[in-house]
């Protein structure tokens, strides 16, 4: 990573991370990813960079947690790519 993750460089850092994430998805090396954010605002900014990938993402706040878990299980059973996007407390109840 070239850009330091600080408030002064936030937009550049998010753009760099989004480009990195996109490369990882396109490489198809990973069937699962968990992307954690320090805040919901940072997560939303990141999502602005990957709108074309939005349907493949399980994003905290889109649906109730139980529904996201159901979708996760279905994707795992079908050997589909699973990408969780969360901030704050969601992963504590899942991991």
UniProtKB/TrEMBL annotation:
Q: Name one GO molecular function term.
A: helicase activity
Give the keywords, sorted.
ATP-binding, Helicase, Hydrolase, Nucleotide-binding
Any keyword Nucleotide-binding? yes
Query: What is the protein name for this chain?
Result: ATP-dependent DNA helicase DinG
Organism (species):
Escherichia coli
Designated gene of the protein: dinG_3
